[in-house]
Amino acid sequence: MERKENGVPQDPVYSKTVLEMLTVANEYCLFLEKAESYDRQDILLFLQKICPLIYIKASLLPVIELTDEEAAEHFVTEEEWEGLFNTLHLKFGEDDLYYFIDPHERSHTDPVKSSLAENFTDIYQDLKDFVLLYQKPRKVSMEFAVYECKRLFETRYGFRLVRAHSVLHYLLNKEGDKGELQDLFEML
Fold first, then answer.
1. Fewest CB within a 10 Å sphere: which of 10, 17, 69, 95?
2. Rounded mean pLDDT of the chain?
3. 19-42 residue pLDDT tens
4. What is the domain-level CATH number for residue 66?
5. What mean pLDDT is predicted for residues 140-163?
6. What is this structure's pTM?
7. Number of domains the chain contains
8. 21 close to 11: Cβ distance less than 8 angstroms
9. Which residues neighbour 2 within 8 Å (Cβ) at sequence distance 6 or greater?
10. Residues near 169 by Cβ (< 8 Å), separated by ≥ 6?
11. Which has the closest alpha carbon to 63: 1, 153, 141?
12. Does 47 fall in a domain?
């Protein structure tokens, strides 16, 4: 499906929405690759701001019709994944683990244990594969990169983004809540 921009047909693989997603994904990956050099607060603040951007940009990705389904490639190694996970796990400390209710499970009342470090490392893996595959000089690689990024957003990392972002919000604002409650009690 070709879109027209100023009356000229444009291939969705080269669209503005894809390039914006590529930019945001690249920023996310570059930051996390240097996570060891940042303190916990800087990491939380960065993630608080970039997660909604990733969500919005990924939700706007175009539907891509694949011409070659054999173009799949994965680049993030198990060692790289583990290294990033361990770094984030140490940075998040006792706040790494959290619980949520999964509406897709049969029992909607049993909390599921999750990890911020695991969520953000999984998102990193999906986005890094997208960025690196899109940079390949073949159009079929770019098509597959966009197709897979959209598919994984819809089935995997979109859910992780939403859940982890709510935890980030809590972590960054829990101190403020205590202060407001204290002010309220002092007024009574």
1. 69
2. 88
3. 999 999 999 999 999 999 999 999
4. 1.20.120.1550
5. 96
6. 0.85
7. 1
8. no
9. 9, 10, 11, 12
10. 48
11. 1
12. yes
